[in-house]
Each structure stands twice: as C-alpha cells, then as structure tokens.
Automatic annotation (TrEMBL):
Record key words, sorted: Lyase, Metal-binding, Zinc
Protein name: CENP-V/GFA domain-containing protein
Cell membrane among keywords: no
Protein species of origin: Aspergillus sclerotiicarbonarius (strain CBS 121057 / IBT 28362)
Domain CENP-V/GFA, first and last residues per copy: 11-120
Molecular function GO labels: carbon-sulfur lyase activity; metal ion binding
Pfam families from the UniProt entry: GFA
Keyword Cell inner membrane appears in the UniProt entry: no
Protein family (similarity comment): Belongs to the Gfa family.
C-alpha cells in the first residue's frame, strides 16, 4: 500500500534541450486549455495546455540562467503576462501575471513521464477562439472568454 498523499507527489519536467529541469510538488490548483490568440502564437499550435500552481510548488532544478522572459502586453484581459522560455531551445517554461501574484502557470507539454500522459484539463478558456476541427472534450467547463 502506498502512503503518499496527493500533495506530496513530485512530478518533473524539462525544456526541449534539457537545459532547464524543474519539479512540481503537489497537485495543480487548476488544469486548463487556453484557446486565445496569444496562446496560439506562443505555442505555434491551436491552444496551450497549462497547470495553475502556487509559486512555491515550482522548483527550477537546473538551468535558471537559461530562462529568458517576454512581457506579453497584448493580453485580452489587459494584464501583463511575463512569459518565460528557454533561450537555447525556445520551449515555454512558466508564466506569471501582473494581476495574480499568487499564481504561476506551467505548460503541461514540458512535463516528463507518466504525469504528462495522464494530464487532463478541467476548463477551457477563450472558447470563442476555439478551432472548429477540435472535437468536444468530455468533462471540461467551456468558458467563452476568460
Ligand atoms: Zn531548452
Ligand atoms: Zn491564452
């Protein structure tokens, strides 16, 4: 029988080049897909898939010096997003918002191992920009804007 509680679980992740390695402790506050224009641009895909965490849950193990940031000032909400990425390979690493200091956002695509495969969103943001070819997902709450 395994005795660890969900909040003591540690999952790890890394950028494409492997220069940045991180660990997340405990469960995310929320798991979301975002269909907004900015998330499409930054990912090069049609949405991002993000975990919302408290800052203390994320621990950058290696590669802190490789992290570069881009201040995204053209956000629909009017907030400024600080998008951190690896300056070697370009992978997104984490995002903070000027309006939500207690939240840090980590893209689930950089998770490694079993956690990456079983990650599932609970909510979808900006569904007014949702791409038509995407099938409906079961169990997500769809928000038109957010
Ligand atoms: Zn990298
Ligand atoms: Zn977005």
């Amino acid at each position: 029988m395994h005795l660890s509680t969900p909040n003591s679980e540690v999952v790890s992740g890394s950028c494409l080049c492997g220069g940045i390695q991180y660990e997340i402790t405990g469960q995310p506050m929320k798991r979301i897909l975002c269909h907004c224009d900015n998330c499409r641009k930054v990912s090069g895909s049609c949405f991002t898939a993000n975990s919302f965490l408290t800052p203390s849950q994320l621990h950058i193990k290696t590669g802190e010096s490789l992290i570069q940031s881009y201040k995204d000032t053209k956000v629909a909400s009017g907030n400024v997003l600080n998008r951190r990425f690896c300056r070697v390979c370009g992978s997104p690493v984490y995002i903070t918002s000027s309006a939500h200091e207690g939240t840090i956002v980590v893209p689930s695509g950089t998770l490694d191992g079993e956690e990456a495969r079983t990650w599932k969103p609970e909510e979808e943001f900006f569904c007014k920009s949702r791409r038509e070819y995407l099938p409906a997902l079961e169990g997500t709450k769809r928000l038109v804007t957010h």
